[in-house]
Design goal:
heterodimer; A: alpha/beta; FAD/NAD(P)-binding domain; D-Amino Acid Oxidase, Chain A, domain 2; six-stranded mixed beta sheet; five-stranded antiparallel beta sheet; 27% helix; globular; B: alpha/beta; seven-stranded mixed beta sheet; five-stranded parallel beta sheet; 22 strands; 29% helix; binds flavin-adenine dinucleotide
Chain lengths: 374, 484
């Protein structure tokens, strides 16, 4: 088994984590990225690691607190989150989420406004209460990407950047090599975790994967005084206070987009910056005077039901994370490793993340959902 | 057939801007006022905005110029500054008379239009903000006349008050009447430095001299002659190795020949950088021109750059080579502990080591990583260095360090500066408070369609609940949202 050569296509967190997990199992791994690792969604996201809906949740939760140590490089992981409401409707929803999680044995406490303000000093009089996830947390996407990459190299893995995969060589139905602009990379098995491009790459192998891509935006402020707990969401926002103190927040309407095989040529933000800023100022009135210093956009790909696909056909394992891939990456990499080396996920049931659920989906599914570019 | 709309997508949620002009001009310097006048005289509706007087918090952050803590307290009084500025800018009266709408104290912090990856905007807009609010203005033509900003460079002691830029000094002397220094030493001897010396002298400041890293004065002969005629010495073949000072900042500067010059201000007049951030944040085309001060905008349909933001006057002088001579000299004076990024306190050794900030643990293998090891993995990219070290990520939006870090990166990688991808500029290109940049009058469509994440009903249903009655309950209670 350890004589195997695996090529991973895509150096976002999913591909990097998978490559790292494979390298930990003694496999020889080469990872290709079309550009710089982590330059797409993996380096542009909110850093949230609290995906209670996912079958990978338990593994996500088990791994994050250990990641700095396992990788050997800092990821800035910080545990737990608070979601706080500034409208009665929000409060009602958050209470439902708390109740739902508690039913599933995932502890979420309900906080009154005073308790929220104690934990979140930037909260204001408009806070109506909140919930406290006794799990989850947040990490720094840039650092996590680089930590995976360095850890992979430390285990002997090879990372080739600026090398888009352009095609596959097959023999008897199995992929024998991946072609990139930097050469032909022979392999015993391949992992495709290329974000929005996963579907066009799979199409070259006659595997149909329904995916649509959307643009999402975030803003960040100058540092605020450090709060006890930096993972503070609510008021239609997800985000975090970084360990430096900056408030980084996203949320709101997305825009369905389309682009070529090499990904978007630009990732511009829009005046949505103003709508985000308003909600941050409402969520954290104590920070309303702080300067916004940057905005950015990233692209996420979605399956029709908004759930990830992690599956395998022949010696091709593939993964697309539907906008929740950062937090789940320690676990998705583990699952991919299991599929590649053992044919099945060893630690949880991921059957409902299989590709076959979309068999026979109508060609015009995007039109039917209104998931089309303007 | 009517198009199905995803209720949580951006479609139709941006209203058209409340106002629009045939021409919006950003920057009321000489080039901007001239452009505004010409357009108004041709019968076009014209809006001219200028960010000056800039708010006190920006001056403190060295935005947009390198004020270096040498602005007087008068700059905190925006009413008074507005008056002073108006009095000091005689062109403005003519502009108003010509029918131009003039807004001072108003910055342009973003330009937006449909293009790659964006199709949701109701036309092209420029985003403005003053001390009260932010808003969007539509335009047919946008003229960028934003000028050029300072090029600071690190050396021991540079991060204290009293080390500042030539453009900031000029602004404080000629527009704000608010320079706090008395005796200035000027680094550089090209035209910018010579003009700075003459201005300072004319304004009655005590000019301690010019220092030039190269062996001879670099600027035009007539300017050199004027400076010498004013009795100002140009010391060649020397550079500062340290600025020493006390609680109020710089008191003297130690030079590489061991001499010491008493002064309260060291003015860096090594070069200016065209202020292209609005155009660049928009993704507009640009090119690198060493003779015109660096990256400059290219012709771009509805957007024109005029004045020095379009590039410094080409006198044949290779600004880039000159700047590298200064970088090498000042860099040689730096220790590993010299701070390069003032906002994030990134030292030279942390930068070259691509080390994380001090609040994170540096394992032995982390400490073994470096810029060198990173460069083995791919060509240099400043945004990557920024993400890892935080240099350029702070409240000044990288103005104090981005140019020198790019140059250091080019040196370390042995590549041409022009070949390095320019570190991205991002809106808002001025730091603006949340409550001011906020859209307090957003559209009902925006409010109603807002969701924290995508709004796909099936996405957040717990795995164990899929296909159970809980799935339906989840959809009902959360209304298809992750949560609001
Ligand atoms: C604004 C925003 C906020 C988000 N917030 C969160 C959050 O808080 N929590 C969370 O868990 N998730 C969040 N996400 C989603 C998360 O970022 C993604 O799900 C995750 O990063 C996906 O990682 P990936 O590796 O699967 O894909 P990507 O990050 O898209 O990586 C794919 C990689 O494949 C490479 N590639 C593509 N084509 C080729 C090719 N032909 N050859 C070689 N390489 C190729 C690309 O260059 C890229 O590096 C957010 C996303 C965005 C945009």
């Amino acid at each position: 088994m350890s004589a195997q050569k695996i090529v991973v296509v895509g150096g976002g967190v999913s591909g990097l984590s998978a490559a790292w997990w494979l390298a930990r199992s003694g496999v020889s791994v080469t990872l290709l990225d079309k550009g710089i690792i982590g330059w797409e969604a993996s380096g542009r996201n909110g850093g949230g690691c609290s995906h209670y809906q996912s079958p990978l949740f338990k593994e996500e939760q088990r791994l994050w607190p250990q990641m700095d140590e396992l990788l050997g490089y800092p990821t800035e992981f910080s545990p737990e989150r608070i979601v706080m409401a500034v409208t009665p409707r929000q409060l009602e929803q958050y209470h439902y989420i708390a109740q739902m999680n508690n039913r599933l044995g995932q502890r979420v406490d309900v906080l009154d406004p005073q308790q929220v303000r104690e934990a979140v000093p930037l909260a204001g009089d408009n806070c109506l209460g909140g919930i406290h996830y006794r799990f989850g947390g947040h990490a720094n996407p840039h650092r996590a990407v680089q930590a995976y990459a360095w850890a992979l190299q430390d285990l002997g893995g090879t990372i080739i950047q600026h090398a888009p995969a352009t095609g596959f060589r097959t023999s008897g139905g199995a992929v024998t090599a991946v072609e990139s602009t930097k050469g032909v990379h022979e392999c015993d098995a391949v992992v495709i975790a290329a974000g929005p491009q996963t579907s066009s790459l799979l199409a070259k192998l006659d595997i149909a994967m329904p995916l649509a891509a959307a643009r999402a935006e975030m803003i960040v402020t100058e540092p605020a005084p450090m709060m006890k707990l930096g993972g503070v969401d609510g008021n239609g926002l997800y985000g975090r206070q970084t360990l430096r103190g900056n408030l980084a927040y996203g949320g709101g309407p997305h825009e369905w987009v389309e682009f070529g095989e090499l990904g978007p040529s630009a990732r511009p933000a829009t005046p949505l910056t103003r709508n985000l800023a308003r909600r941050v100022a409402e969520l954290l009135p104590g920070a309303a005077h702080l300067n916004v210093i940057r905005s950015w956009a990233g692209v996420i790909e979605m399956t029709p039901d908004g759930r990830p696909i992690i599956d395998k056909r022949g010696n091709v394992t593939f993964c697309t994370m539907s906008g929740v891939g950062f937090g789940l990456s320690p676990a998705s990499g583990h699952a991919i490793r299991d599929l590649v080396l053992e044919g099945a996920c060893s630690f949880t049931d991921i059957d409902k993340l299989g590709l076959s659920r979309f068999e026979g989906i109508a060609d015009d599914w995007r039109t039917a959902k209104g998931w089309l570019p303007l | 057939m009517t198009r199905t709309i995803d209720p949580h997508a951006i479609d139709g949620k941006f209203p058209a801007p409340a106002t629009r002009f045939d021409v919006v001009v950003v920057g009321a310097g000489r080039s901007g006022t001239a452009a505004a006048l010409t357009a108004a005289q041709a019968g076009q509706s014209v809006l001219l905005v200028d960010e000056n007087p800039v708010p006190g918090h920006q001056i403190g952050n060295d935005v947009p110029l390198y004020f270096g803590g040498r602005a007087t307290a008068a700059t905190q009084n925006s009413e008074r500054m507005l008056e002073t500025l108006f009095m000091n800018t005689p062109d403005l009266e003519a502009v108003i008379e010509a029918g131009v709408e003039l807004l001072l104290g108003t910055c342009a912090w973003g330009v937006y239009r449909n293009g790659p990856l964006v199709g949701s905007l109701p036309g092209q807009v420029v985003a403005l903000a003053d001390g009260e609010r932010s808003w969007l203005v539509g335009f047919d033509r946008l003229v960028l006349a934003t000028g050029a900003r300072d090029l600071p460079m690190a050396f021991p002691g540079w991060s204290q008050p009293g080390v500042m830029g030539a453009a900031a000094l000029k602004k404080l002397l000629t527009r704000y009447d608010a320079f706090a220094g008395k005796r200035v030493l000027i680094a550089g001897s090209h035209d910018l430095a010579l003009e700075t010396a003459l201005l300072a002298h004319a304004k009655g400041l005590d000019v301690a001299g010019l220092i030039e890293v190269r062996d001879a004065p670099q600027g035009a002969a007539d300017l050199v002659a004027q400076v010498e005629a004013a009795g100002i010495a140009i010391h060649c073949g020397v550079h500062p190795v340290e600025a020493k000072g006390g609680i109020d900042g710089v008191e003297r500067v130690i030079l590489s020949d061991g001499s010491s010059v008493d002064c309260d201000t060291l003015v860096m007049a090594i070069g200016l950088v065209p202020m292209i951030e609005l155009a660049d944040a928009l993704g507009s085309a640009r090119t690198f021109d060493a003779k015109r001060g660096g990256h400059i905008p290219l012709e771009d349909g509805a957007i024109t750059a005029v004045g020095s933001c379009a590039g410094l006057a080409d006198t044949g002088f290779d600004h880039s080579a000159y700047r590298f001579d200064w970088l090498n000299a000042l860099g040689g004076a730096c220790g590993g502990d010299t701070i390069i990024c003032q906002c994030e306190e990134v030292t030279l050794s942390d930068l070259l080591g691509v080390q994380p900030p001090r609040y994170l643990e540096r394992s032995p293998i982390m400490q073994a990583r470096s810029l060198k090891s990173l460069l083995e993995d791919g060509p240099p990219n400043q945004d990557q260095i920024k993400r890892l070290t935080r240099s350029g990520m702070g409240a000044c939006q990288g103005r104090r360090c981005r140019d020198q870090v790019a140059m250091m990166l080019a040196v370390e990688a042995g590549s041409e500066l022009a070949a390095l991808p320019l570190a991205t500029h991002r809106a808002p290109v001025r730091p603006l408070p949340l409550k001011i940049i906020a859209d307090w009058e957003e559209s009902e469509e925006m409010r109603a369609g807002w969701d924290v994440w995508m709004g796909i009903p099936t996405q957040w249903v717990p795995y164990a609940d899929i296909g159970t009655p809980y799935e339906e309950e989840n959809r009902r209670v959360l209304g298809g949202n992750m949560s609001l």
